[in-house]
Amino acid sequence: MKKMDVLPAFVALLLGGLLLLTLFILSTTTSRRKRKRKPCLPPSPAGLPLLGHLPLLGSLPHRKLQAMAEVHGPVMLLRLGRVPTVVASSSAAAQEAMKTRDLAFASRAPSAMATRLLYGRDMVFAPYGEFWRQARRVSVVHLLSPRRVQSLSFRRAREHEAAALLRRIHIHVNSSSGVVNLSHLLISYARGVISRAVFGNHDYELDLDGEEDGGGGKKLRKVFEDFEALLGTGTVGEFVPWLAWVDTVTGLHARATRTFRALDSLLDRVLADHLAAKRRRDGRLTMVGDEDDDDEHRQDFVDVLLDVKEAEEKAGGEVQFDTTAIKAIILDMFAASIDTTHTTLEWAMAELINHPHQMRKLQTEIRAAVAAAGEVVTEEHLEKLPYLQCVIKETLRLHAPVPLLVPRQTLEDTELLGYHVPARTRVVINAWAIGRDRATWGHDADEFVPERFEEDDDVLNIVGGQQDDFRFVPFGAGRRGCPGAGFAVPSIELVLATLLYHFDWELPPPAANTGGVASSTLDMTELYGLSVRLKATLNLVAKPWSPRLST
Ligand code: HEM
After folding, report:
1. Whose CA is nearest to atom 27 of ligand 1?
2. DSSP three-state, residue 521
3. Which of 81, 357, 404, 465 sits a CA distance of 20 to 30 A from 146?
4. pTM value > 0.95
5. Structure confidence at residue 27 (pLDDT)
6. How far is it, in rounded angstroms, from Cα 222 to Cα 262?
7. Which fold has domain 54-550?
8. CB of 474 within 8 A of CB of 397?
9. What does the DSSP assignment read for 292-336?
10. d(CA 551, ligand 1 centre) in Å
11. Domain locations in the chain?
């Protein structure tokens, strides 16, 4: 071979080798980079400097967030002032956050108002950790267990309050206008039921209807109203620290301090009463779990919590349930149950007024089940009322009382539908949007159609502990899901059946309800607060019904 022929061959070989080497290096670095690449953050709509997306939420944030999700997808990243917030708006996202990756999403976002009003020691807003685990165990096992909820004393409490509600309606029916302010009476009912469960038969006058009340009860009711309203209020300072002064100027801090002091002194009185009663008892009751059935069922929530405290003290370890924690958990129970129960009832009655066909269908079911049995609706009737359950499910689907659930916070770096969610991110699950998702519920997703659940039978067992269906999530789910659903549902069912058994309901003539403007339907505008309620007061005409009148 000539020297001149060898040179180009050598150069070609060298170049080929270099090319291969470059390709090899390129391919290994890209595949390493590929392996290392983190999933990206969720999409984020344009926000404003400093305030971020806060001003875009408006007065009904669940609706604004639903509209944003339609454009940006089921997982979005917002900035509420300085607080990064991930919003989940589909059942798949809810399922991943509350089931598949439940632990990573199991802490709570801090809330300045809750820390202030609930001593920073309550359960609902507690960060994930030992105190929350113990409080949750006590709630699930001792306070809200199915056995306790179905115990005779709790059933009597519900039936007693339903009977009181009935008496109050009769007073209004016999008044000159004949118009019943049902909103007001339903709040009284919800407050009465939880007061009996928490305080037993000690009367702190929380459940009195305004017109029967001398004064003390009225004052206390106002304190509780303020407490519920404040707890549903976000402070400006926690989102935009340089605007924290706004909370002082608007009087928010002063109101919170006043309300906290009033509640704290009531709770001191409650604990002192219960301790005195405990001392008077004959010493038969010792620790939770040792008592016989009757004793356990006679105990109210305060008794149970004091027993847990005593047991902890005797065991000599760390005491989680000191007096402060007990007071905080008592307030949790009021905050978690009154608004949610009463708004569900209010929405159910409002939807039925606007859907007379469904109202009649439900009344026919209830009246057929009850009429032969002495004209008093009891809890035995409830299991014979499948359509009633459909009505309640449909109400909760359309009007989740806590539409954005209680905000969670991630414990660690995690993912949601393939997007990266860093540790300590606030997480909001839009239960309201999920309940109205057309992809799940079809073209009539916004309509009140209880019949959609008739076929569904056992699906969406909303009270079930392990929820496997995320098509609607009014009680949340997973570790932080609502432990009070089993308590709430019988209270709601009993009173709805009672209202519809005893009365035919209709809108009052125009002058009484609409300022003179005739309307055949009720205005369903919402009002945002601790829960989302009907903006209008539910003023209705109740016409007594009895089997004798209808024959
Ligand atoms: C219609 C009635 C009710 C609704 C719609 C409702 C809804 C909710 C929701 C959405 C949450 C947050 C769940 C989550 O983050 O996944 C929650 C938590 C909670 N609810 Fe309810 N609730 C109701 C009634 C009650 C009642 C009657 C009680 C107690 C007597 C109660 C006690 C609680 C407690 C203690 C928590 C905090 C759980 C935790 O953080 O571990 N709820 N509820």
Report:
1. 337
2. coil
3. 404
4. no
5. 55
6. 10
7. Cytochrome p450 (1.10.630)
8. yes
9. -HHHHHH--HHHHHHHHHHHHHHHTS--SS-HHHHHHHHHHHHHH
10. 44
11. 54-550
